[in-house]
Amino acid sequence: MDSEIKMRKAETEDRDIIWNILQQAIERRRKDGSMQWQEGYPNLNTVEKDIENGFGYVMTVNGEIAVYAALILNDEPAYDNIDGAWLSNGEFVVVHRVAVDEKFAGQGMVKKLFDHIEDFTRSHGIRSVKVDTNFDNIAMLKILESKSYTYCGEVFLAGGMRKAFEKIII
């Protein structure tokens, strides 16, 4: 039987589950030798602010939270200064803080998440999705490549240079 996969806004009662998933991801990055997320960000306060601001989204598998991501519309000041060039200057969805529960790791969940994010973007009539990641986050770089995101240059974010990508959706 196929699993039912849905994306929805995160709610206050999801907070502890989301924070647990993020902590797993922080530890996974550390074990992979990545510098990403090793300086006390993201933290529980980040999660609370995401939920409060309506940025937090979860992807559920049969009702169980499998993936967390923050989706922010048109607002990432760091993206104003790109060493390179974006594909578009219109409205965009920014994807931040993607984290997968260990239980669901290795099941292509982030690819499915990006499908949902692209549907979300399209349904809101928004032109593109922009995302950045650490140069040493190999897993995410591979996913972005597989989902046909275009490398646009580098942005300075959270104390470091990040590779920035964009995909035109509509």
From TrEMBL:
Q: Name one Pfam family in it.
A: Acetyltransf_1
Q: Which residues form the signal peptide?
A: none
Q: Which GO terms describe its molecular function?
A: acyltransferase activity, transferring groups other than amino-acyl groups
Domain N-acetyltransferase per the UniProt entry, residue ranges: 5-170
UniProt entry keywords in alphabetical sequence: Transferase
The keyword Zinc belongs to this UniProt entry's keyword annotation? no
List each coiled-coil range. Answer: none
This protein's name: Acetyltransferase (GNAT) family protein
**Organism listed in the record:** Chryseobacterium taeanense
